[in-house]
Design a protein that fits this description.
The structure holds two protein chains of two kinds. By secondary structure, chain A is an alpha+beta fold. Chain A has three domains: 28-56 and 382-419; 61-376, no CATH class; 432-546, Arc Repressor Mutant, subunit A, CATH 1.10.10.10. In chain A, 48% of the residues lie in helices and 18% in strands. Chain A has helices spanning 12-19, 28-53, 59-107, 112-115, 122-139, 191-196, 215-223, 273-279, 371-420, 432-445, 454-466, 470-478, 484-494, 499-506, 510-524, 529-546, and strands spanning 144-149, 163-171, 184-188, 200-206, 208-210, 235-240, 249-257, 263-272, 291-298, 301-302, 308-310, 323-329, 332-336, 342-350, 362-370. In chain A, strands 1, 2, 3, 4, 5, 6, 7 and 8 form an eight-stranded mixed beta sheet that branches. In chain A, strand 6 and strand 7 (249-257) form a beta hairpin. In chain A, helix 2 runs antiparallel to helix 9 (371-420), helix 3 (59-107) packs antiparallel against helix 5 (122-139) and helix 3 (59-107) runs antiparallel to helix 9 (371-420). Chain A is rod-shaped. The radius of gyration of chain B is 29 Å and the shape is globular. Chain B contains 18 helices and 13 strands. Chain B has two domains: 44-163 and 337-392, 3-Layer(aba) Sandwich (D-Maltodextrin-Binding Protein, domain 2), CATH 3.40.190; 166-335 and 415-464, D-Maltodextrin-Binding Protein, domain 2, CATH 3.40.190.10. The N and C termini of chain B lie far apart (114 Å). Chain B is of the alpha/beta class. The chains are: A alpha+beta, B alpha/beta. Chains A and B meet through helix 1, helix 2, helix 6, strand 4 and helix 8 of A and helix 1, helix 2, strand 2, helix 4 and helix 12 of B.
Chain lengths: 547, 466
């Protein structure tokens, strides 16, 4: 930055000197301007104080809070309700499937423990389960339904223990407004089952369901060992690719348990990442990058690798590592990721397990936006107020400049003119105080007859010598028309007293003498005391000649 | 005197004004800073449905996210996908919207439709013409035949191309070579419909003979995803232009009979699979070796494993061959692919939709979602500039390269035909498919029961064209 040159008008000393001339004091213009500007600042300060105390400057924060509050209430309530409904459906599906499978095995005179030795019965069993799965998928707005039996079609192939016989059906448009034509697709299971039901087979079709090392199957199998009702044994597998090859999905896993308490497999429903994104899309009208996250929580740490995301952009790519819940700021909660990126919003714990269930993972639902967007929005609300105040300040300063100029200019002009003319010239300025001042100065500055200007006397003499002075004749003729009071004052003037001395002699006010002066001057046809004294002197001179 | 006063006043007011203006300027800047991500006022959110779900990876979703974060954000446009659903369901919902059925969903701003479905919506005034939303220079960048297909009855452009496909013959080359080694079958035999039919019957007989103890357990060789398309194109190959009438199909002519013999005859003999499933479902399990289908089915016919019923797998390699032509006929193939239509709304919303379509069909984006799924980009020279090695992870580059070689060869020698704009086309084709499938099943059952295949074919034909 270039430093200010000492001759620059903005150099502090010069700038101040412009405002207040140290040699000549502050001009009337500036005095009046500063006075008005000070008045304006006081008014604006009062307005700012009122706005601050009434909470206008924090309206942006309030609106942000209301927005997040509303979105969180709406979406968290939806996820809580729908996950609850999915859980109920999953439990019901498990009971029905267990019953149907047992019945089918009874008909074939085979027990579940014998099934692995008779794989030819597996496909008919899965066929038996298919209609129940299709019904469940069509009833629920979920992305998938599955069943995995704890047997494999061919135990003799390599990696036979990594998959289990099962079915996976997907609904590719569970979000469609009119759900009159469910779009059930076949992703895992014997192809013949799909063909018989005219189900479209997806390109990533597989014959068996992957079950190892995927946690969902093993964890559910382990929990099935507990002597608890089914409603306490289910497990919500967080968002991962345990089942789907193309996207993450959150899975409700319910064990299939026969009447003898034996574990037969796992069934359940799932919410895919794409469905979550469509179904739980937060409003982005206030903050363009608003997002929603549903994830398991451990203390203050949110495991984003197992989360589902929603937002009108690739939300997942915004984060590095896990999200940590920070402290509250202006009634909003802050969240930060491993890179230090900060988000603001609100969160709520979602209860997805009963209190006495085997699994007790805490799940959290977050609605938030990048902190810079929230900050910018809050500032935007204040910006309008600040802009209006600045506008008001500017208008006030311009008005102060204009008013001070209009007000002081006639005075300044009069003073300038006074400097250039004789104060006794009798010129009028139509400003009463100025005119009075001029009269006063003229009277004060008038010399006594003895000291009359020689030049003026000579001029009168010249006029007398010429023999033509109508004004003097009028003066002489009208002297007798003066009233008694006027005559007394006139006489005192003739005797050489000043106006101030006459006031003291006659005990009258300045206004009274001004009035009498006006009358005397009018009657005698003179314009000033000086002229009056000139004519008196001339009368004295010409009196013997006439006599 | 007055001038002097003015000068003095100016000397006084100049620094005051300067300070004031600086203050206002800095205040304004301060107030405007710190909002790099704020959305422009009046953000337009467009709803969109699409039918490209279930792909790996979900490039449409990724690209829409990119648009919303970039061009869309800069222009105050957000595209929100509210449904990902197959074409059939989109068509059903569009029909509900068109007729104002109770429970009909709200029409999305952008939705992919075929011209015959769009026609009905256009007639109801539900679609926005797109010509004025694009400059002539912009339109000139697209393949003209793709734009022509999108012009409806009033000559205006309503169906905007975003990805096109054509049909090819997929062949499980691994299994075919095993068969060819013992029977002398050749890939060239599959260039004609008649050669395909003959090869299919030989394959059935060869596989049947592999298990002499079991009769009639041979395997089908071929299946067509759409027999209606097979017939419509074959009729054009044989010079019949009026096969598809306004409400009926013209089947009573020698050309139709020739196609019948090249389709129903091998079907009743076991060479063609008789199914209403997609051919790919049969190919995945090795139940057929060849299928005609859209290039968009490429993902089903890559280098992958066939999984048999006992969960054993076999790695196979597919070849991609030109679409079969009727012997002596003109090489013709169907050009497929829907286009995006924009619902009639406000000029601002329509312009926002056009902005998205321009961005979406630019080769920089178009190639990324079209090619990995076997679709073709819609701008001229888009393929020339396409860097296949830079396509998204998961793209079967090897199969794609084979596909592009075949398609580019076909572009030189084939005529590309499109389905006529006929509101009755869907109903007519469904009816035809259903009846033909029934005829094939009946014929196959009669042949298995011991009837002469040629006599069965003849009888079925006579019944069919009535």
């Amino acid at each position: 930055m270039t430093p200010l040159h000492r001759n620059s008008p903005f150099f502090p000393k010069r700038f101040l000197a412009r405002f207040a001339d140290v040699r000549g004091g502050v001009t009337l213009h500036r005095r009046l301007f500063l006075f008005l500007a000070l008045l304006l600042l006081i008014v604006l300060s009062s307005v700012l104080l009122i706005l601050y105390t009434t909470g206008v400057f924090s309206s942006g924060f309030s609106e942000s809070r209301v927005f997040f509050d509303s979105e969180l209430a709406h979406l968290s309530s939806k996820i809580a309700t729908e996950s609850g409904e999915v859980t109920v459906s999953g439990l019901s599906l498990s009971e029905r499937l267990s019953s149907r499978l047992e019945t089918a095995m009874d008909k074939s005179d085979i027990s579940f423990s014998q099934l692995q030795k008779h794989p030819e019965f597996i496909e008919p069993l899965l066929d038996e389960a298919t209609d129940s799965l299709i019904d469940e998928l069509e009833k629920n707005r979920t992305s998938l339904v599955f069943v995995a039996l704890d047997v494999t079609i061919n135990p003799d192939i390599p990696d036979a223990d990594r998959s289990r016989a099962g079915l996976l059906l997907r609904n590719l448009s569970p979000n469609i407004v009119s759900n009159n034509t469910p779009t059930t697709r076949f992703e895992i299971g014997p192809a013949q089952i799909a063909r018989e039901r005219h189900l479209y087979v997806l390109n990533n079709w597989r014959l068996e369901i992957p079950t190892a090392p995927e946690d969902y199957f093993q964890i559910t199998k382990t929990s099935a060992m507990e002597d608890l009702p089914l409603s306490r044994l289910y497990y919500w597998n967080p968002g991962d690719r345990a089942l789907l090859a193309d996207e993450d999905a959150m899975l409700l896993c319910v064990p299939l348990i026969d009447s003898g308490g034996r574990f037969m497999g796992v069934c359940g429903l799932g919410i895919s990442a794409s469905l979550f994104k469509l179904a739980y899309m937060p409003d982005d009208s206030m903050f363009p990058h608003t997002f929603a996250v549903f994830a398991p929580r451990t203390g203050n740490e949110i495991d984003l690798s197992k989360a589902l995301f929603s937002g009108n952009y690739n939300v997942r790519s915004e984060f590095e590592g896990n999200l940590v819940i920070g402290k509250e700021f202006k009634e909003l909660t802050t969240f930060s990721d491993a890179s230090g990126k900060v988000f603001e919003g609100l969160c709520k714990d979602i209860v997805i397990y009963p209190k006495d269930a085997v699994h007790q993972t805490d799940w959290i639902f977050i609605v938030a936006a990048p902190q810079e967007e929230v900050t910018a929005y809050n500032a935007m609300g204040n910006r309008t107020v600040i802009f209006l105040l600045v506008l008001l300040l500017a208008a006030g300063i311009i008005a102060a400049v204009f008013v001070s100029r209009r007000y002081i200019t006639p005075i300044a002009n009069a003073i300038d003119r006074m400097k250039q003319t004789d104060s006794r010239s009798g010129e009028k300025y139509n400003i009463r105080e100025i005119d009075d001042l001029f009269t006063f100065l003229a009277e004060r500055d008038d010399p006594k007859p003895a000291a009359l200007d020689a030049v003026a006397l000579n001029a009168n003499r010249n006029e007398i010598a010429s023999g033509h002075d109508e004004r003097f004749d009028t003066f002489v003729k009208n002297v007798n028309s003066l009233s008694r009071a006027e005559r007394a004052i006139f006489n005192l003037y003739v005797e050489g007293y000043t106006a101030r001395e006459i006031i003291q002699i006659l005990h009258i006010s300045i206004n009274t003498i001004k009035t009498h002066n006006k009358h005397i001057y009018t009657k005698l046809g003179v314009t000033s005391r000086k002229e009056l004294l000139d004519f008196v002197a001339r009368m004295d001179k010409e009196a013997p000649k006439e006599s | 005197m007055k001038t002097k006063n003015s000068l003095k006043f100016l000397q006084f007011i100049r620094p005051v004004t300067t300070v004031l203006l600086c203050f206002i300027l800095f205040t304004g800047l301060f107030a405007g800073c710190g909002m790099p991500n704020a959305a422009p006022k009046e953000t337009i959110t467009l709803t969109m449905w699409h039918n490209m779900g279930g792909r790996v990876p979900d490039m449409i979703g990724i690209l829409i996210d990119e648009f919303n974060a970039g061009v869309g954000k800069d222009n105050g446009v957000i595209v929100s996908v509210t449904s990902v659903t197959p074409t059939r369901d989109i068509d059903d919902n569009m029909e509900m919207i068109r007729h104002g059925d109770p429970g009909a969903p709200e029409m999305p701003d952008i939705v992919p439709l075929y011209p015959n479905v769009a026609l009905g919506l256009m007639e109801e005034g539900l679609l926005a013409p797109l010509d004025d939303l694009f400059s002539q220079e912009e339109l000139d960048a697209y393949q003209p035949q793709y734009l022509d297909v999108g012009r409806l009855a009033d000559g205006k452009l309503y169906v905007f191309p975003f990805a096109k496909s054509t049909e090819v013959l997929y062949l499980d080359q691994t299994l075919f070579e095993r068969f060819a080694a013992e029977t002398g079958a050749k890939n060239e035999d599959l260039l004609t419909a008649e050669g395909l039919a003959g090869t299919a019957v030989r394959y059935y007989e060869w596989t049947d003979a592999l298990t002499p103890d079991t009769e009639n357990d041979g395997k089908a060789f071929f299946s067509a995803d759409s027999w209606f398309n097979f017939y419509a194109v074959a009729m054009l190959q044989l010079g019949v232009q009026d096969f598809i009438g306004e409400k009926t199909l013209n089947m009573d002519n020698p050309a139709f009979r020739r196609i019948w013999d090249a389709s129903v005859s091998p079907a009743v003999r076991g060479g063609y699979a008789i199914t209403d499933s997609y051919s790919s479902t049969l190919a995945m399990t090795g139940d057929i070796l060849a299928a005609t289908g859209s290039t968009a089915g490429m993902q089903y016919y890559g280098n992958q494993n066939i999984t048999y019923a006992d969960n054993t797998t076999e790695a196979v390699e597919y070849s991609i061959n030109p679409y079969p032509v009727m012997r002596g006929g003109t090489s013709a193939v169907l050009q497929r692919g829907s286009g995006m239509v924009v619902s009639k709304s406000t000029p601002e919303r329509e312009a926002a939709a056009a902005l998205f379509l321009k961005w979406f069909t630019d080769p920089a984006q178009n190639v990324r979602y079209a090619l990995p799924t076997g679709y073709l980009p819609v701008m001229k020279n888009a393929l020339d500039s396409a860097d296949i090695s830079a396509l998204p992870e998961g793209t079967d580059v090897q199969t794609l390269e084979k596909l592009l070689i075949t398609v580019r060869d076909m572009e030189q020698t084939y005529g590309f035909v499109t389905a006529p704009q006929n509101a009755n086309l869907t109903a007519m084709s469904s009816d035809f498919e259903s009846k033909l499938n029934q005829a094939m099943q009946e014929g196959r059952a009669r042949v298995l029961a011991g009837e002469d295949p040629d006599a069965v074919c003849e009888a079925l034909y006579e019944a069919f064209i009535q």
